[in-house]
Design a protein that fits this description.
Elements lengths: L1 H4 L6 H23 L11 H22 L13 H7 L3 H12 L7 H8 L3 H7 L35 E2 L5 H4 L7 H11 L20 H8 L2 E2 L9 E2 L5 H4 L7 H14 L19 H4 L3 E2 L2
Parallel strand pairs: 1-2, 3-4
Protein name: Helix-hairpin-helix domain-containing protein
Organism: Flavivirga spongiicola
InterPro entries: Endo/Exo/Phosphatase_dom_1, RuvA_2-like
Length: 294
């Protein structure tokens, strides 16, 4: 008991210190309770505040705009189910387009797109600014004139005996069975789109209206002997901006190609591009002209 009481026995100096500490605590509590430290004379620069709020609002708008899905220019002939749905087309409208394309028909204008798909005027006005048709679609609707001219033999010639497709005239092309005035001018117009002409015979597939049979008859007598010189793109290092310079590759497809490349840790063969989402498989031979693997 004696030891227990010793914990509560203080010297005179200790008692004075405890008393002083209690007074100090109580004094500080009173100061905090009764004294108002808030300032009623806060000066606000209203002009600067308005300017600051406008900057905040503009940054919010920029962030909102960036979060919206972007639409890049595209050829409406290659719209898929997924692409059509993302553009706001109904299933029936997409089905009409796909049925039209299955018949090997091509849409060459915004007006024709609406006629085939029957999309509303409001939807058409939203998506049509992004339509990107080839330059050669605005061609004459007149039928080829029948010409009684000598036709080349359908048998294939040796390369030495074939004429250079990059130097052929319209009159020379018209000697091929199935090539009239319109088709010959269309081939030359398409060839002249590129400085230096064709890279390869396979590009004839891009000439509107030419059937595989007619193309075969052309290549039996003509071939590209002086190909256009191009700088090929390394598919395993290409950026989106690089890829969109290639025929038949738009921004959406370029993005898909790069995403697939990341998943595969690089392409081992150009033919692997056929497995890329929305890739135009029927154009693989033309696209491969512009690419190479390291």
């Amino acid at each position: 008991m004696k030891n227990f009481k010793s914990h509560f026995v203080f010297s005179k100096e200790q008692r004075n210190g405890i008393f002083l500490l209690i007074i100090l605590i109580v004094g500080l509590q009173c100061v905090c309770f009764f004294v108002d430290f808030s300032s009623e004379n806060i000066l606000v620069n209203k002009a600067a505040l308005v300017k600051f709020n406008k900057e905040i609002d503009s940054l919010k708008l920029v962030k909102l705009e960036k979060s919206k899905p972007k639409i890049y220019p595209f050829n409406p002939n290659y719209i898929t189910d997924f692409k059509g749905a993302s553009l706001g087309m109904s299933n029936k409208e997409i089905d009409r387009l796909l049925a039209f394309r299955k018949q090997n028909n091509w849409i060459n204008s915004t007006k024709e797109f609406q006629k085939v798909t029957k999309v509303s005027d409001s939807l058409l006005s939203q998506i049509s600014p992004y339509f990107k048709f080839p330059e050669w679609v605005s061609v004459s609707n007149s039928k080829p004139k029948q010409r009684l001219v000598f036709s080349y033999n359908n048998a294939s010639k040796t390369i030495a005996k074939k004429q250079d497709l990059n130097k052929a005239t319209a009159q020379q092309l018209q000697k091929v069975n199935g090539i009239g005035v319109v088709f010959s001018e269309r081939i030359i117009r398409f060839r002249n789109k590129f400085v230096g002409g064709f890279i390869d015979d396979v590009q004839l597939q891009d000439v509107y209206g030419l059937t595989p049979e007619v193309i075969e008859r052309i290549t039996n007598n003509f071939t590209v002997k002086t190909p256009r010189q191009i700088e090929k793109i390394n598919i395993n290092k290409a950026t989106i901006d690089n890829l969109v310079t290639v025929q038949h590759i738009d921004y959406d497809l370029a993005y898909n190609i790069i995403e697939q490349r990341k998943l595969k840790n690089g392409y081992k063969s150009l033919d692997e591009l056929k497995k890329v989402k929305d890739f135009p498989v029927n154009k693989i031979d033309i696209i491969k002209l512009y690419l190479f693997l390291d």
